[in-house]
Write a structure and sequence with these properties.
The complex is a heterodimer of chains A (798) and B (172).
Chain A lengths: L23 H16 L8 H13 L3 H34 L2 H28 L1 H11 L4 H14 L1 H22 L7 H13 L9 H28 L2 H22 L4 H14 L3 H5 L6 H6 L3 H11 L3 H25 L29 H28 L5 H17 L3 H19 L2 H17 L3 H18 L5 H15 L1 H26 L33 H5 L10 H15 L13 E8 L2 E8 H8 L9 E3 H8 L3 H12 L6 E4 L10 E4 L9 E3 L12 H30 L1 E3 H12 L7 H13 L3 E3 L6 E4 L2
Parallel strand pairs in A: 2-6
Antiparallel strand pairs in A: 1-2, 3-5, 4-5, 7-9, 8-9
Chain B lengths: L2 E5 L5 E5 H4 L3 H10 L6 E2 L5 H13 L16 H18 L2 H6 L4 H14 L2 H15 L4 H8 L7 H10 L6
Parallel strand pairs in B: 1-3
Antiparallel strand pairs in B: 1-2
Helix pairs in contact in B: 3-6, 6-7
Classes of the chains: A mainly alpha (798), B mainly alpha (172).
Chain lengths: 798, 172
């Protein structure tokens, strides 16, 4: 022992002098004794410092190997002894009887030894810390603690052909299986400890833990077999909702098990076992269980079950695909059903009397062809599709977690069923028309907004949007001119929604129509305030229409195809100042817009007449034509008896319209004229007279003309519409072809056709045949030519 | 602050505050295992003066929290040398005037300190003293080192010649 030497260069003595020259064996004995005391739970009797110093001394004196090996031997001896004393008997009992009680006892004994060993090793490790720090590193040996672990593994678990380890694993798996079968609760606390041991100990041969190399695979295999068996049983007995619910419950139970006492690495593997055996193998069958499959879940709106189904299927790409397809196809089937139940055939209402159709509609009995009934039924088609869409939208939100792939599948199905109905564009327009005319009567503004929004959504699904535009313009024109629209705000909101969908090009004309109406009402006000209107005696309201915006062929039940010319040639009565009013307006208008030309249309106007029936007076609201007819009986001509032919000559009202108008005045609810003979149909020889004896409780009466409402087109009308749409399409196709060829210069036929279809698809589906015709025409007109080398290639001619 | 009782090799009792002496890994280890008792810890292989010097060192560095790190458990063998090298460089950079002054002592004390630092597992002090000794060796020939440290050669002349030949390449 040296004190601080003041001499410079004191002698260095080897470290040995710090500890007395003691026999290393004797030193080691101290350590060995200490270890056994530690195992006997007598650690408090020991001097930590002394042991530490002893170990330190041994390492410094180059006796590290002696110490290390010695400790190892001590541990081996101790553990082998304990194994034989405490563990082996339980192993034998368990292997013979395999009962849960023996399993429990075995696990308990192993666990006890293990936890004692861990505690002891922690202490030993601390005492021998210097060994770890210095000797172990240089000798490249496992640390003291690791060495202790290995000794435990080798002497206790793996000894004698791994008999303890095997029994241990069996006991654990038995408990797990019993828990899975719900026969018995597992002792989770115990399992956690024992499995923790397996996770900590390394396999001697592979870079795995004992858990991974000896336990895990059996764990998964057992789970797999269990679920395989149960799946077979359940699929026979349960409907889809129950099946998926139990599957989810099983999955939750396994994950719970992992959390409670298994290694996290087993979670994905167990999940896979459950999903594979319960779902993957039966993914198709589950959906088509008779009476309790996907179709039933959808129809019964079983959202909770659909949600569970989705959550399970979404984890398996193959299964999800089947769910998607199943839903898609079910929607298609429903679409067909709706088509069938709304009795929509491709023929639609006929032009003559319809046999076998009992109209129950509120429209008057004048509707001989049952058109209104058919219209109502057809509108139901739209309503049902929209309701169906709402249902599936709810599924998307609440059961399918807004999944993009499900959304697409549903959307595609709806697109298919909507476009399967060839009259879809017309029907949709009619539907919107109905709602804009009568909607607020039945529902709140919010509800109507929802319906309109959905309608625009349906519009987005339409393939032939140009057809829709055609019909919408026609219906809108009638609404505007007859003043039937119930809410201007709603009208505007629909147009703006359409604009968002298709761009302003699409809605240009519609907006033009609104503008015309606005200007017309301004004009009416100005006229009223001006001097020219002073001596008219009544109000004149004229709607001035810009031709380009308004449909050229309005529905023919108001006037036939050549209506434009014929309706303007009716004879206006000079009585009552009617003609004067028209002339005054013309003059007024042309004063401001001298370069324009006015063409008068009388077919859609209306008039308010004050009519005296004997002593009674009524105010009648009638159409312009009705007015013309009635005014033939004015002042002095009251007692006139006019035949239809007479009336025709004196008013020049076109034949079709005349018939209907006479019917409305003489055969309907309000018979202001008498007809001889009293029959429904009107013949040229029938005689009409003013009905002086007309009575009615109301003062103001509106006399409706047939089909004030929009209806489905008749065959004739449909043909006309198709022709008009077809014509417009031709122009668009040709324009598109020219546009494409101008930029590309050269293209093959297929390329050109495909490109054209693409460009026009936002508006309509262009049939390749029509495109071919269009190309032919362009070639004739020298816009394109065929390439001389290859007739399949076209060249643009500048 | 808790006071820890230590007994030197001569049997003297020295008290020191816990946070100062816990810079020693060994003491820390003992305290964790045995717990804080009033029982003094005997240190038969550390003399009083040396222990005093060590306490002096630890007191000065008591607030160097970066030094008070736990021993890493099982560092991977291959990266260990790299870690050690950079740790040494860091330690050298951190040596301040106190440290340099601390080491201006005679060789005997220096070596005693080194051994005590090793036993008590005070890495910074071990680095410091080791560094000091290394510096004493730097640039010296073999014989000069022998002279400095009073080390007797135990090579035979043939062995000595052998070693010289083997290491000739680094003599330049």
């Amino acid at each position: 022992m040296s004190f601080a030497n003041k001499r410079p260069g004191g002698r260095i003595m080897p470290a040995r002098r710090l500890t007395p020259q003691v026999d290393p064996e004797k030193q080691f004995e101290k350590i060995a004794l200490a270890i056994s005391e530690i195992y006997k739970h007598n650690a408090s009797k020991l001097s930590f410092e002394e042991l530490y110093r002893t170990a330190y001394g041994l390492v410094l004196s180059k006796n590290g190997p002696l110490l290390y090996e010695g400790v190892k031997r001590v541990l081996e001896t101790h553990l082998t002894e304990r194994m034989h004393q405490d563990i082996l008997e339980h192993v034998l009992k368990f292997n013979t009887l395999r009962e849960a009680a023996q399993g429990e006892a075995l696990l308990s004994s192993i666990r006890l030894l293990w936890s004692e060993h861990v505690t002891a090793m922690l202490m030993i490790k601390d005492v021998l810390m210097y060994v770890d720090k210095v000797y172990v590193k240089t000798a490249q040996l496992p640390s003291i603690y690791d060495m202790g672990m290995r000794v435990f593994r080798d002497q206790v678990l793996l000894a004698a052909d791994q008999q303890v380890l095997k029994a241990l694993n069996n006991a654990i798996l038995n408990q797990i299986q019993d828990e899975r079968k719900q026969l018995r609760d597992a002792n989770r606390h115990m399992l956690r400890s024992v499995i923790g041991m397996l996770i900590e100990l390394q396999d001697p041969e592979y870079p795995h833990t004992l858990y991974q190399s000896t336990f895990e695979l059996r764990l998964h295999a057992m789970a797999g077999a269990h679920y395989l068996h149960h799946a077979q049983r359940r699929i026979e007995q349960m409907g889809a909702p129950e099946y998926v619910r139990t599957a989810q419950a099983d999955l939750d139970a396994e994950m719970d098990r992992v959390d409670a006492y298994l290694a996290p690495s087993s979670a994905p593997k167990l999940r896979k076992e459950v999903l594979e055996k319960l779902i993957s193998n039966y993914s198709t069958r589950i959906l088509v269980i008779p009476g309790a499959g996907l179709a039933q879940m959808l129809d019964q709106r079983d959202i909770p079950s659909l949600g569970v189904l989705y959550k399970l299927y979404v984890q398996l790409p193959e299964a999800l695909k089947e769910l998607r397809d199943g839903t898609h196809n079910h929607i298609l089937a429903l679409g067909k059903q709706i088509m069938a139940s709304t009795a929509l055939t491709t023929t639609g209402p006929s032009d003559g009397a319809d046999k076998g159709n009992t109209p129950k509609s509120p429209v008057s009995a004048l509707d001989a062809s049952g058109t209104a009934a058919k219209t109502a039924v057809a509108l139901r088609w739209v309503q049902e599709i929209l309701s169906l869409y709402d249902v599936y939208d709810e599924f998307l939100q609440k059961a399918f977690e807004e999944s993009q792939s499900m959304r697409n599948a549903i959307k595609d199905a709806f697109i298919e069923i909507i476009n399967a109905n060839s009259r879809a564009p017309e029907l949709l327009s009619l539907f919107i028309d109905e709602n804009l005319k009568n909607g607020l009567r039945r529902m709140t503004e919010q509800e109507m907004d929802h319906i309109l929004e959905r309608s625009v959504l349906m519009f987005r699904f339409l393939k032939n949007k140009d057809a829709f535009e055609h019909y919408y313009k026609a219906h809108l024109a009638k609404r505007l001119l007859l003043g039937r629209s119930v809410s201007d705000d709603a009208e505007q909101s629909v147009v703006s929604k359409l604009k968002v969908e298709c761009g302003s090009q699409f809605t240009l004309k519609l907006e033009g129509m609104f503008k015309d109406m606005q200007l017309s009402s301004d004009l009416a006000r100005e006229l009223r305030e001006s001097s020219m209107a002073a001596d008219l005696g009544f109000d004149v309201n004229v709607s001035v229409l810009t031709p380009t915006f308004w449909p050229t062929t309005l529905s023919s039940d108001t006037f036939p195809a050549d209506a434009l010319s014929s309706s303007s040639s009716v004879i206006l009565p000079s009585a009552g100042g009617v003609r004067k009013a028209i002339d005054t307006f013309s003059a007024f208008y042309l004063k401001c817009h001298s370069s324009r030309r006015l063409t008068w249309q009388y077919s859609m106007g209306s008039a308010d007449l004050k009519v005296h029936f004997g002593t009674r007076t009524h105010e009648l609201n009638v159409s312009t034509f009705q007015m013309l007819i009635l005014m033939l009986f004015v002042d002095g001509a009251e007692n006139a008896q006019l035949t239809m032919t007479d009336i025709r000559e004196r008013t020049q009202i076109p034949e079709d319209a005349l018939t209907r108008h006479l019917q409305s005045l003489a055969c309907g609810k309000f018979r202001v004229l008498t007809k001889t003979p009293m029959s429904r149909d009107v013949k040229p020889t029938d005689v009409f007279a003013f009905n002086n004896g007309f009575k009615s409780p109301q003062y103001r009466i509106r006399i409706p003309v047939v089909s004030a409402r929009n209806n489905l087109e008749t065959e004739k009308e449909k043909a006309a519409s198709l022709a008009a749409i077809g014509q417009e399409r031709q122009y668009l196709i040709e324009a598109a072809v020219v546009r494409i060829m101008k930029t590309r210069r050269r293209m093959t036929h297929e390329q050109l056709v495909n490109e054209t279809i693409d460009q026009l698809s936002p508006r309509f589906m262009a049939p390749p045949k029509i495109i071919k015709e269009g190309i032919g025409k362009l070639i004739d007109r020298d816009y394109l030519q065929r390439s001389p080398e290859d007739p399949r290639i076209y060249i643009y001619l500048a | 602050m808790t006071l820890i009782k230590l007994i030197t090799a001569e049997g003297a009792l020295i008290e020191v505050e816990q946070d100062i002496i816990e810079q020693s890994g060994t003491i820390r280890n003992i305290l964790t295992d045995i717990g804080l008792t009033d029982k003094p810890i005997p240190l038969p292989n550390v003399s009083g003066p040396i222990l005093t010097k060590i306490i002096e060192y630890c007191t000065h560095h008591r607030h160097d929290t970066s030094r008070r790190c736990q021993r890493p458990s099982q560092p991977a063998l291959d990266t260990e040398s790299d870690c050690r090298e950079s740790a040494i460089e860091e330690a050298i950079a951190k040596m301040d005037d106190f440290d340099h002054e601390f080491c201006r002592i005679d060789q005997g004390t220096l070596f005693d300190l080194l051994l005590a630092a090793n036993f008590l597992d005070i890495q910074p002090l071990l680095d410091l003293t080791g560094y000091t000794v290394a510096n004493m060796m730097k640039g010296k020939t073999v014989q000069e080192i022998r002279d400095t440290f009073h080390v007797r050669s135990d090579f035979t002349p043939e062995e000595e010649e052998q070693v010289m030949k083997e290491n000739a390449w680094c003599e330049n």
